[in-house]
Amino acid sequence: MPNWPYDVGGVSEVLANNITGKLVEFDDEESFCKAVLDLENNIELRTFIIQNAFALISKDFMNTDIKEVFLRRYMELTTDS
User: Fold this and answer.
1) Is 80 exceeded by the pLDDT of residue 65?
2) How many Å apart are CA 21 and CA 73, to the nearest integer?
3) DSSP symbols for the chain
4) Dist. CA 24–CA 22, nearest whole Å
5) Which residue from 25, 19, 8, 7 is spatially nearest to 46, judged by alpha carbons?
6) Burial class of residue 7 (count of CB atoms within 10 Å of its CB; 0-12, 13-18, 19+)
7) Which of 12, 19, 21, 27 has CB 3.0 to 4.6 Å from 3, enough for a Cys bridge?
8) Is the CB of residue 21 less than 8 Å from the CB of residue 49?
């Protein structure tokens, strides 16, 4: 399912507007509704966003990969050099 979160905090660092989701300015209900309708009515855009978001998550945000990065960093910090 496509995302259309408010553009707050670090959301825009992960989600690229019209690439991996639709960013909406905070508290802009009209833009939020428009984003939902855009994705509902535009199957090409919806499919494009879904495929890109899945690829991004699969590449950069898999728990097993994140675990390995944290474990490696922890070992670097706790091992005497």
Assistant:
1) no
2) 31
3) -----BS-TTHHHHPPBTTTB--B-TT-HHHHHHHHHHHHH-HHHHHHHHHHHHHHHHHH--HHHHHHHHHHHHHHHHS--
4) 6
5) 19
6) middle
7) 21
8) yes
Would the pLDDT of 50 be above 60?
yes
In degrees, to the nearest 5, what angle opens at C-alpha 21 toward C-alphas 43 and 12? 165
* pLDDT of the residue at 52: 92
| Residue 63 to residue 40: CA distance in whole angstroms | 30
Express each pLDDT in 27-38 by its tens digit: 889 988 998 999
Query: 12, 17, 10, 3: which is closest to 54 by C-alpha?
Result: 3
In the predicted model, what is the mean pLDDT of residues 3-20? 74
